[in-house]
Write a sequence for this structure.
């Protein structure tokens, strides 16, 4: 336990695990009702963070898997909660949670892949749901989901990659659609999408030194020029740098210190920046960022699929591309 004084400056693993478990069990709070529409992603952030902390056993996995399955709709996709309309984002969260618990066989992979393949447009892009928004986030999600389901052949992968490449800007970064401003979140989804599509040749890794410029004086990373640092960019930037073999572009000691300074050392959880309120999203991305930097006491994370590497699920994929 971390009950003794002097936790300052080190990761309070047990307290973060306790924070996530307490949050998962709090079903009568205002926050619980306000987050209903994206709960499936919230569960993915929570259970993946717990797995990376080595505490996955602290939650009722069987109950979680049953709840995930109850979010699936007749069209094959998943909604953010039971009886919510399907969206590609929650479909990926569902698939990731099932992979984490090694229960992917409980879904009909063809049905889920069919839902995703219908979202691909003639120019290779993807819409997120029946409302028609296009975003490179959805390109990544489609490729990631179909890869995890072993159904990549259900997509036009080359066209998907070409569309993603068409969202590349003069500064080397990527936006959500062609011509849109570069943002570190979009850089992650585009680099990871091109990785899955085996099309990293469509980007210029050295031009992506834009990512190294995201580190601010306090060690934290921001998502675009002139913006404040935020713990979640530790993931969005570092995962892309890790895929490109350029983690050394960042001062990792300074970034780890920044993430540690965003911990609630008493009650656990990590916030976006020092002194702010903690939340499960930043707790997950802070821990996952630390994992990418090999922080002691944490499991390794896959930068492309955002899942623990422990079970070696992606090992063959990574080896093929090295
Ligand atoms: C499996 C890890 C994983 C992701 C699934 C949803 C998704 C795919 C990716 C999201 C990528 C993305 C766009 C992340 C950025 C999120 C974020 C911090 C947005 C905030 O943007 P602004 O403009 O913040 O509000 P700044 O920091 O620019 O002020
Ligand atoms: Zn953030």
């Amino acid at each position: 336990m971390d009950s003794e004084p002097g936790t300052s400056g080190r990761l309070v693993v047990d307290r973060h695990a306790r924070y996530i478990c307490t949050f998962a069990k709090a079903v009568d709070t205002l926050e619980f009702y306000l987050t209903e529409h994206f709960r499936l992603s919230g569960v993915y952030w929570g259970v993946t963070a717990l797995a990376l902390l080595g505490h996955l056993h602290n939650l009722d996995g069987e109950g979680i898997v049953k709840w995930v399955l109850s979010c699936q709709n007749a069209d094959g996709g998943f909604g953010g909660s039971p009886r919510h309309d399907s969206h590609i984002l929650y479909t990926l969260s569902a698939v990731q949670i099932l992979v984490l618990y090694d229960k992917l066989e409980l879904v009909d992979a063809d049905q889920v892949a069919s839902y995703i393949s219908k979202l691909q447009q003639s120019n290779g892009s993807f819409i997120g749901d029946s409302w028609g928004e296009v975003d490179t986030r959805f390109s990544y999600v489609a490729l990631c989901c179909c890869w995890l389901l072993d159904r990549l052949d259900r997509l036009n992968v080359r066209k998907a990659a070409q569309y993603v490449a068409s969202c590349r800007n003069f500064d080397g970064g990527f936006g959500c659609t062609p011509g849109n401003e570069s943002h570190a979140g979009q850089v992650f989804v585009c680099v990871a999408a091109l990785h899955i599509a085996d099309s990293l040749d469509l980007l210029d890794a050295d031009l992506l030194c834009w990512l190294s410029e995201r580190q601010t004086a306090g060690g934290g990373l921001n998502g675009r020029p002139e913006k404040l640092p935020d713990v979640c960019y530790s993931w969005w930037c570092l995962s892309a740098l890790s895929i490109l073999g350029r983690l050394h572009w960042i001062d990792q000691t300074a970034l780890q210190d920044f993430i540690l300074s965003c911990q609630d050392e008493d009650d656990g959880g990590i916030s976006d920046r020092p002194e702010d309120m903690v939340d499960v999203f930043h707790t997950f991305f802070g821990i996952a960022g630390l994992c990418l930097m090999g922080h002691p006491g944490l499991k390794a994370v896959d930068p492309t699929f955002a899942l623990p590497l422990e079970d070696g699920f992606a090992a063959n994929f990574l080896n093929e591309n090295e």
User: Anything to note?
Assistant: Residues 230, 232, 272, 282 surround zinc ion (ligand 2) (CB under 6 Å). The chain has a mean pLDDT of 93.
